[in-house]
Amino acid sequence: MFTGIIQSIGRIQRLEPRGGDVRLSIDAGKLDLSHAALGDSIAVSGVCLTAVELHAHGFSADVSRETLSLTTLGTLTPGSRVNLEPALTLATPLGGHLVSGHVDGVGQIIEQREDARSWRLRIQAPAELARYIAPKGSICVDGTSLTVNQVDGAVFELNIVPHTLEETIIGGYRSGTPVNLEVDLIARYLERLLLGDAAAESARAKSGLTMGFLAQHGFASPGDG
């Protein structure tokens, strides 16, 4: 588990193909690895990876073909910048929100504009994630815990303060930049919980949540939607 509070910007040093997978070697920048051990989890731009090598200025981690295809890690090249956060401990302040490091989908930056000293970002999320994104809710973008300002369909807007621009890779975003998205854990589990016994049925046998289902269980009025 992670908090979404980025501790360092790292850089990709090498990408070594290994039988269809890739081993990433990452310069960890200012990330303190003095207490790190082999097998530790480190979030790399929001993707939970396992350290398989530790070296003087960073670490290496293996990335499976599935992870390469479902996240932005497959687009990295030597020199690419990445957000880094070590796994939280029971003594870690929860300054962001609970983050699993399991990416739900890849979004795309569609607009950025200055707003005083901050930036306003608009991001297009995959359509299937729209139901989990709520105004003033939490979302993780490339491993950074952020608060959603506005939502319009599958497009949501964020306000990025100067400190976040300086301490994460968000300051390098441009229109068209792909980003890893992880929705709030509570939203995912709540949807599953509301399915009740239907959760045990196969995907073909159930149609998922509907307004009728929610009304039947007291979560909406029959005329809503």
General description of the model:
This protein has a 6-stranded antiparallel beta barrel. The chain has 3 domains: 8-86, Elongation Factor Tu (Ef-tu), domain 3, CATH 2.40.30; 105-186, Elongation Factor Tu (Ef-tu), domain 3, CATH 2.40.30.20; 190-216, no CATH class. The protein contains 4 helices and 12 strands. It is mainly beta. The model has no long low-confidence stretch (mean pLDDT 91). The chain has helices at 65-70, 162-167, 185-194, 211-216, and strands at residues 8-18, 21-27, 41-44, 47-55, 58-63, 81-86, 105-115, 118-124, 138-141, 144-152, 155-160, 178-183. The radius of gyration is 19 Å and the shape is globular.
Q: Topology, please?
A:
Elements: E1 8-18, E2 21-27, E3 41-44, E4 47-55, E5 58-63, H1 65-70, E6 81-86, E7 105-115, E8 118-124, E9 138-141, E10 144-152, E11 155-160, H2 162-167, E12 178-183, H3 185-194, H4 211-216
Antiparallel strand pairs: 1-2, 1-6, 2-5, 3-4, 3-6, 4-5, 7-8, 7-12, 8-11, 9-10, 9-12, 10-11
CATH architecture of the largest domain: Beta Barrel
Give the percentage of residues in beta strands. Answer: 35-45%
CATH class label of the largest domain: Mainly Beta
Helix fraction, binned, reads: 10-25%
Summarize model confidence as the mean pLDDT. 91
Taken in chain order, the helices and strands follow as EEEEEHEEEEEEHEHH
| Uncertain residue ranges | none
